[in-house]
Design brief:
It contains 10 helices and 17 strands. By secondary structure, it is of the alpha+beta class. It folds into 2 domains: about 190 residues, P-loop containing nucleotide triphosphate hydrolases (Rossmann fold, 3-Layer(aba) Sandwich); about 90 residues, no CATH class. The two termini are about 40 Å apart.
Length: about 375
C-alpha cells in the first residue's frame, strides 16, 4: 500500500489522537493519546484500553461508508460517554506528520434521532513547514456518512488513503466454529482479514507467487521456532472442490498424516495468524496495525517471538497493542508505553505517556513489569 512521503522519503505517520466523548473518554477535557512506531497501551481490566481499539474500528467504518451500520450494531448509548443524556457528541482530531508536513483530520459526530450519530463537522488541514497558515478544507457536514472519500482536495485524498490503511485485528476466536478453522474460497486472498478467517487462502497465495515465496518461508520458520513439531502448511484445494482451501498442516516427522486446524492448540493457531500478519510482504502491510491482547494463550517463548516480530514490522508500519501482560511489556522500552488508568473521581479513562528519564534510576533495579506491579507506573486497579 502506497504511503505519502515527504521530499526526503519519510512516510507520514499518525502521531496523536485528540479524542472527546467516546465511550470511557469524557466529552469536556477529553484525552490526547500519543502514538509512535510502536505504542503499547498498558492498563488493568476496565481501564479503557479496548475503547481505543474500538475507536480505530469506528475510523474504519468512516472510511468504508458504513458508519451507521457500526453505530447501529454498537448502539449510540454505548458509544457516547455515559450515553446521550450526558454527552451529545464525539469529537476527535487525528494528527499525521512527516518531517516537513502536518495533516489533521477533525470530525464531530453528534447525536440525533432516531438513535443515530451524524457528521456535524468535518475538516482537513495541511500545514507545511515554513508556512504561516495551514490550508484548511471544510467538508460538507450534516450527512450520515463521511465525505472524506469523495472530496477532491489533495489533502483529503492523502488523509483518506492513510485512514484506509488502518486495520484492527482480533484473533481470539479459535472455537470449533471459528472462521479460521473453516474452509475458505481460494480467491479470498487480497489481504488478511481481521479475524484471520482467510488465513489458509492468504498463505496459499504467498506460497504460490514467486515474488512472495520467501516471505511464506520466513513465516514457516518463525512458526517452527515456537512449535518445533510443525513442518509446513498443506494448502492444496479440497478434494472434489478446487475453489476452497483449509488450514491443514504436516509435522516434521515425515508422516503422511494430515493435521487439521482443530488439531492444534488455540495459542498456536493464534500465533500462526499473528506471524502471517506481521511477516507478510511489506507492500501488503496495513499502514497502521491495531492488536488487542495478542499475547492471550501464548507460551512465554512465543510472546518473546511476537515482540521481536513487532519490532521488525515497526520499521515498515506503525503498530498499536493493548495489553495487560507483564511478560509482554518487558520486551519493550518505556518510550513505547502509554499507561491507561481509570479516574474514579471523573469516571473516565486517562492516558499517560511514560517518561523514560524519570524512570532511569528505577530501571537500574527493576524491570518495567515489576514497576507496573509495584504501581510505580500506574495502570493498576
Amino acid at each position: 500500500m502506497e504511503q505519502r512521503t515527504n521530499n526526503n522519503g519519510t512516510r507520514m505517520k499518525l502521531k496523536l489522537i485528540d479524542l472527546k466523548g467516546f465511550k470511557a473518554i469524557d466529552g469536556h477535557s477529553g484525552q490526547k493519546i500519543p502514538l509512535g512506531d510502536v505504542t503499547i497501551l498498558l492498563g488493568a481490566n476496565g481501564s479503557g484500553k479496548s475503547n481505543v481499539v474500538s475507536f480505530f474500528k469506528m475510523l474504519n467504518s468512516l472510511t468504508t461508508g458504513v458508519l451507521q451500520n457500526y453505530v447501529g450494531k454498537q448502539g449510540v448509548s454505548q458509544l457516547l460517554f455515559y450515553g446521550s443524556k450526558v454527552t451529545d457528541s464525539i469529537f476527535f482530531t487525528l494528527h499525521f506528520s512527516s518531517d516537513d508536513i502536518t495533516d489533521t483530520y477533525e470530525v464531530k459526530l453528534t447525536y440525533g434521532l432516531p438513535d443515530r450519530l451524524f457528521i456535524s463537522g468535518e475538516k482537513v488541514t495541511c500545514q507545511k513547514n515554513g508556512k504561516e497558515k495551514p490550508q484548511e478544507n471544510y467538508l460538507e457536514s450534516g450527512g450520515a456518512e463521511s465525505g472524506l472519500g469523495k472530496d477532491e482536495s489533495n489533502t483529503s485524498k492523502v488523509v483518506y488513503n492513510l485512514l484506509s490503511g488502518i486495520r484492527a485485528f482480533h484473533f481470539h476466536d479459535t472455537s470449533d466454529t471459528a472462521p479460521i478453522k473453516d474452509r475458505r474460497y481460494v480467491d479470498d486472498a487480497k489481504y488478511l482479514r481481521h479475524d484471520a478467517g482467510n488465513l489458509a487462502a492468504f498463505l496459499k497465495m504467498l506460497k504460490e507467487l514467486d515474488e512472495y515465496k520467501r516471505y511464506y518461508d520466513r513465516i514457516v520458520r518463525h512458526i517452527q521456532r515456537v512449535m518445533p513439531q510443525f513442518g509446513d502448511f498443506s494448502l492444496d484445494t479440497l478434494p472434489g472442490n478446487e475453489k476452497y482451501v483449509r488450514l491443514n498442516w504436516v509435522d516434521t516427522y515425515g508422516s503422511e498424516y494430515l493435521f487439521g486446524p482443530d488439531q492444534i492448540s488455540d495459542g498456536s493457531l493464534r500465533f500462526m495468524a499473528l506471524t502471517t500478519l506481521l511477516l507478510q510482504p511489506p507492500e501488503l502491510l496495513p499502514k497502521f496495525i491495531v492488536l488487542d491482547e495478542p499475547e492471550l494463550g501464548l507460551h512465554p517463548a512465543a510472546i518473546a517471538e511476537l515482540a521481536g516480530m513487532i519490532h521488525t514490522v515497526a520499521q515498515k508500519t506503525q503498530i498499536l497493542v493493548a495489553t495487560q501482560s507483564t511478560r509482554f511489556v518487558d520486551e519493550f522500552s518505556p518510550d513505547d508505553l502509554v499507561i491507561v488508568d481509570r479516574d474514579e473521581t471523573n469516571r473516565c479513562s486517562v492516558f499517560k505517556k511514560l517518561d523514560a528519564e524519570q524512570l532511569h534510576d528505577w530501571l537500574k533495579s527493576y524491570s518495567l513489569s515489576e514497576l507496573w506491579e509495584k504501581n510505580v507506573l500506574g495502570g493498576q486497579p
